Amino acid sequence: MVRASHESGNDPEAAARRRLAIEAGAVLVIVLIALALVFKNSQPVEVDLLVATRHPRLIWVILGCLAAGFVVGFWVGGPMRNARRKR
To answer: What is the largest CA-CA distance in the chain?
Structure first.
């Protein structure tokens, strides 16, 4: 018995629709987690800097630390990437 291509799972359009549905679900989960983190971490916290004390919201402290970590990681990884590229 011969199956049609859409029944056998070889249909590229069906695979693309499934992949799009999975990606949309993943984006939705990420957005919901981000919203939960923002609302849960919205209380002010005390941050002691070298010369001053500030009271930003915790979410801004978290995002600032993520940004600083990304920049430092990119900066540290840059020379290794350039050395590998030269070889």
So the answer is: 79
